Amino acid sequence: MTEIPMADAGTTAGARPKEVTYAAFFVLLESITGLVVGGIEYAIWENELSLLGAVLALIGFGIYFLVLKQDYTGWLIAVIFTVFAIVLYAIGENWPGVGLSLICFIYFIQPNVRAHFTPG
């Protein structure tokens, strides 16, 4: 009886690299955090800076889809977005948000992650 070799489940053509999936997850996590923190702070103190953070978080949801597509522009915007988030969280004294954004930034600029986002 002749056996037909089966392809590995993880090596299908067009599969998204795990680095891209993790990067997109970090953008999504950062956006959810920014939306929740910014929304709560705006509801309590009606601070315009908190409203700006919530609006940037909504933009982050769009960046999430660009990162999933492995778009170089999406990677670049995500890096800039993360730097803005670090500054915004630091001004608002949200230190857990600063920490999360720093982790995202460090992950995005790693060469093995950046290699999956080629300009084209």
Task: Describe this entry's structure for a reader.
This protein is mainly alpha-helical and 120 residues long. It has one domain (18-114). Helix content is 72%, strand content 0%. The protein has five helices and no strands. The protein has helices at 18-45, 48-68, 72-91, 95-108, 111-114. Helix 1 runs antiparallel to helix 2 (48-68) and helix 2 runs antiparallel to helix 3 (72-91). The longest helix has 28 residues, at 18-45. The protein is elongated and about 45 Å long. It starts with 17 loop residues before the first helix and ends in a 6-residue tail after the last helix.
Number of domains: 1
Q: From the structure provided, what is the oligomeric state, counting identical versus distinct chains? A: single chain
How would a crystallographer describe the biggest sheet? none
Low-confidence stretches: 5-12
Which geometry do the CA atoms define? elongated
Estimated helix fraction: over 70%
Q: Tell me the strand percentage band.
A: under 5%
Order of helices and strands: HHHHH
Give the strand tally: 0
* Amino- and carboxy-terminal Cα gap: 48 Å
What's the average pLDDT?
Answer: 84
Radius of gyration over C-alpha positions, nearest whole angstrom: 18 Å
Class by alpha and beta content:
mainly alpha
